[in-house]
Design brief:
alpha+beta; 6 strands
Amino acid sequence: MSSLINRAHIRVRGYHLDGYGHVNNARYLEFMEEGRWSYFDQHARLVREMHESGRGFVVVNLNIDYKRAAVQNDDLTVLTGLIEVGERSALCHHRILRADGKVVAQADLTFVLMDMKAGRASAIDGEILETMQRICVNKQTFAEAVAL
């Protein structure tokens, strides 16, 4: 698997569950956010470049597919990576796997690069663009990671 795909590990706890005994759908969003934090910890240079330019990422769209249930004490792995970079937005992909390698959920998250002072989308350019292009992976790489 590409080292450009981050792996974050989460143990399902009782407070993650809904009344049916499986992970509540909204919790998967939190799991994916944990994956993004871990991803950006791994790519601190990108975060530094954004902050120095007065810009930051803002989520504008999320499409999630729930594949199967996770239950208490399941050990999950959240795979996170950047799969596409546009002029003002980029696409992040997540896959959440159970310990048996089965996909629990997957999502494509679109974010824009926001000029924090102006309060509007900013062009992805310069060093930020170069760094993002360098760490971008093909979505097929996630399928290969699942197969491992």
